TrEMBL record:
Residues 104-326 form the Pterin-binding domain. Transmembrane segments: none annotated. This is Dihydropteroate synthase. Residues 441-463 are annotated as: Disordered. InterPro entries: Dihydropteroate_synth-like_sf (IPR011005), DUF6513 (IPR045406), Pterin-binding_dom (IPR000489). It comes from Candidatus Thiodiazotropha taylori. GO terms for biological process: pteridine-containing compound metabolic process.
């Protein structure tokens, strides 16, 4: 028997919500739309629902707008049926109900992220701990202390101890045998990197070594190291070394593939920083593609860095990419429409409303508050006085009558600039909310005091 769902809304969105539900032609549930007696659905609160909804009829579930504020658990207890938030955009209802696939659970992953503090010798212990905390918050699993050639690191052991006391797993990354020994004796979990000429270090410490070729591109050298560790029964991670583009990149990918074919179960590391750092391109896309290769080859460790300014969100991006690729591989599906964190510049569905739908909504407005939306036709600004459409925010200004109201003009300028950026790039724009840049920016809590467009009354009024 089909579930019966009551959808609560306001007068401005009622017609569009009804249309979307009809177009869904849902077979798994019956639906009814109830206008709660307010204009703007986004202004709905739990207290308002409790006061105004006298009878929910035979509904078995109540769905409220995604930006409805308040304690829905209390409403659930009050009405005796589940009360839940729907999507923030009503045009996303089909996806919410699985018509376009439910949002997947991205808790799983199988790639360990080593985040390198490349200038560790130049930081004091407190500075290292601060950087480590930021990397771990972004998704790092191991803090890699990067040593520098001909740069003393007298507080290396102290740094390892401090990181471990703080609960972090630690690796030491150096070409200097004494530094590797010092880090290992201090309790580092991993050492980067050992090769045929310094394998003796592994006999002195308990740290898990990352093995590399003695010479660039020499896979046989790496295989010999691996054979020795297999004979000793010691754990290790193998790294054939990823080379930058035009300096052996494709050949190095083939080395990883060859190693995986020869050793289907061995742990492998890939240092993706040689591509993200040494390619002037947005790292969200690079990390997505590289993590796709990593997922196919079942590589379970990566080393990443945030040295260049354009790589400042590399750890966050790697964390998102490993979760997306793991889920897509497990589900035997393409890594598309899984999660939006790697689409920082462009979005798959940037314009949820058509110009015709926006025009229809604009015709219903009876108050002076400005609403701003975008479609593939441009930027749209409207209130009771009519609908304006332009590509450039400057074109709106002469028609708004806000020359004498600096605060109002400033607000509209900010919002129209955001709308222009979203329109030009193909991003979602919601009035009174910052644009979403995915993993390119740290996640922040959504400000639930902001209202949704269309229909927000937080906007300033026309004169």
């Amino acid at each position: 028997m089909a579930e019966k769902i009551l959808f609560l809304t306001g007068s401005l969105a009622e017609k569009q919500l009804t249309r979307v539900l009809r177009e869904m032609a849902a077979e798994e549930f019956e639906w009814r739309v109830h206008n709660l007696g307010l204009k703007v659905a986004a202004l709905m609160t739990a207290e308002m629902i409790k006061r105004r909804l006298d009878d929910h009829g035979d509904a078995e579930r109540i769905l409220v707008p995604g930006r409805c504020r308040g304690d829905l658990n209390a409403l659930t207890q009050h009405f005796g049926i589940p009360v839940e938030r729907g999507p923030e955009e009503l045009m996303d209802l089909p996806r919410f109900f699985g018509k376009e696939g439910r949002a997947p659970n991205l808790d799983g992953y199988d790639v360990r992220i080593f985040a390198e503090i490349v200038d560790a010798p130049n930081l004091n212990v407190d500075g290292i701990l601060e950087r480590a905390a930021a990397y771990v918050a972004d998704g790092a699993d191991v803090i890699d202390l990067g040593c520098l050639p001909e740069t003393p690191f007298p507080h290396l052991a102290e740094s390892v101890n401090a990181l471990r006391e703080a609960g972090y797993r630690v690796s030491v990354d150096s070409m200097n045998a004494e530094e590797l020994l010092s880090g290992g004796r201090a309790g580092a979990d991993f050492l980067l990197s050992l090769h045929e000429e310094n394998l003796w270090i592994a006999d002195e410490v308990a740290s898990t070594p990352v093995l590399i070729p003695a010479k660039p591109g020499d896979l046989d050298s790496l295989l010999r190291c691996m054979e020795q560790f297999e004979g000793r029964g010691r754990s290790y991670i193998a790294d054939p070394i990823l080379d930058p583009i035009h300096f052996g990149f494709t050949d190095s990918i083939l080395r990883y593939q060859g190693l995986r074919k020869k050793h289907p179960r061995v742990e492998i590391m890939m240092g993706v920083g040689n591509i993200t750092e040494l390619t002037e391109a947005d790292t969200t896309g690079i990390n997505a593609v590289m993590m796709g290769i990593i997922s196919e080859l079942r590589i379970t460790n990566i080393l990443t860095t945030e040295v260049s300014s354009h790589c400042r969100s590399a750890v966050r991006e790697a964390d998102a990419a490993r979760r997306i690729m793991y889920w897509a591989r497990r589900e035997k599906t393409l890594p598309k429409q899984v999660d939006s964190r790697l689409t920082a510049l462009h979005e798959i569905k940037p314009f949820p409303y058509t110009f015709a739908e926006i025009s229809e909504l604009a015709a219903e407005i009876r108050d002076p508050n400005f609403r701003i939306q975008i479609s593939d036709n441009g930027i749209h600004l409207y209130n009771r006085d009519g609908l304006l459409t332009h590509d450039d925010p400057f074109d709106f200004f002469p028609e708004l009558g806000v020359e004498s109201d600096g605060g109002h003009a400033f607000y509209l300028g900010v919002e129209l600039a955001r709308a222009q950026i979203a329109y030009q790039l193909g991003k979602r724009y919601v009035q009174d909310q910052p644009l979403c840049w995915g993993s390119a920016l740290p996640e922040t809590e959504k400000d639930m005091s902001r209202q949704d467009a269309p229909g927000t009354t937080k906007t300033r009024k026309s004169s």
